[in-house]
Design brief:
Distance between the termini: 33 Å
Strand order of the largest sheet: 1-2-9-4-7-10
Number of strands: 10
Largest sheet: 6 strands, antiparallel
Radius of gyration: 20 Å
Number of helices: 12
Length: about 290
């Protein structure tokens, strides 16, 4: 289980033998019950999905708020910023975590666009028929992994391919409300910021990417979200800094390079201006949520 850093964070209070079933370092299916939420953002390293059975959990995925409740599915892909704010005492869910290697070896066609599909809709309400299909998949996988058997890995791959094909067909089902022009610009802006915030922090860069003026982009983003484009960009930088400071052993200098700052000094001044604390003070603090933006 050593490669499942995200799983280790979620299950940090559970013993290894309490995790339901796993296949080497590539695949794990397990149950999640209430645990105190992490007190800082973290970046996902694997592919994970969570089917909520009872209770409720709230947080953000790439700064977008979510509420996970019964019959809802949460999906995470590598590189996402996740923050858990709360979890009810009666929370119960089934979790599945897959390594990048496992996904790449499934043999899905190039046109499948798995990452794009999952990143676009990280939280999804499931119809009863789809929920039961997913629970059936989980049950089959648990039985398959309960003991070693011939062709176990191959069988798991075929089951998972069928799971993803069914999942994609559900995403393509018509009926969702079309986005307004402003909502579409907001969505496209967030996609661009996620991809470029390490190196691009000027609003003009993003307005050029969207082929609109910086003034119009600022107006639209403020109208839709209540925050300016600069605030969104800064939020992504700060949340990533939180995660790197609390969940890695990188030095402050290395983190400043990772986040695209010209020097550690520039990073330190930026971080303190936004949070009121130096990166070192935040890393050493016992109350990680110095700010919640």
């Amino acid at each position: 289980m050593g490669n499942f850093k995200y799983l280790n964070l979620i299950e940090r209070n559970k013993k290894k033998e309490e995790i339901t079933n796993y296949l080497k370092d590539d695949f794990c299916i397990y149950e999640i019950s209430y645990h105190p939420p992490l007190e800082y953002p973290f970046k996902t390293n694997e592919y994970s999905c969570y089917i909520c059975l009872e209770g409720e959990s709230r947080g953000t995925i790439d700064l977008s708020s979510f509420c996970l409740r019964p019959s809802f599915l949460a999906v995470n892909t590598p590189g996402q910023l996740v923050e858990l704010y709360s979890m009810s005492k009666d929370f119960r869910a089934i979790g599945i975590t897959m390594s990048r290697e496992f996904i790449s070896n499934l043999g899905l066609p190039y046109s499948f666009h798995l990452d794009r599909m999952l990143r676009t809709t990280p939280i999804l309400e499931l119809k009863e028929s789809i929920l039961q299909s997913m629970l059936s998949y989980c049950s089959m996988v648990q039985r398959l992994l309960a003991a070693e058997r011939p062709y176990q890995t191959e069988t798991l791959r075929h089951l998972t391919c069928a799971f993803f094909y069914g999942f994609k067909s559900y995403f393509q089902t018509p009926g969702s409300k079309p986005l307004s022009n402003e909502e579409l610009i907001m969505k496209q802006f967030i996609v661009e910021v996620k991809e470029h915030f390490h190196t691009q922090r000027k609003v003009l860069f993003y307005s050029d990417r969207l082929n609109i003026s910086a003034c119009y982009l600022s107006t639209v983003i403020k109208n839709v979200s209540g925050k300016s484009p600069t605030e969104w960009i800064n939020d992504f930088i700060i949340k990533e800094a939180y995660a790197l400071l609390k969940t890695t052993n990188l030095t402050i200098q290395q983190i400043s390079i990772e986040l695209g700052f010209p020097s550690q000094s520039f990073f330190g001044k930026f971080f303190k201006r936004i949070t009121g604390f130096s990166p070192t003070d935040y890393r050493d603090s016992q109350t990680p949520h110095l700010t919640r933006q």
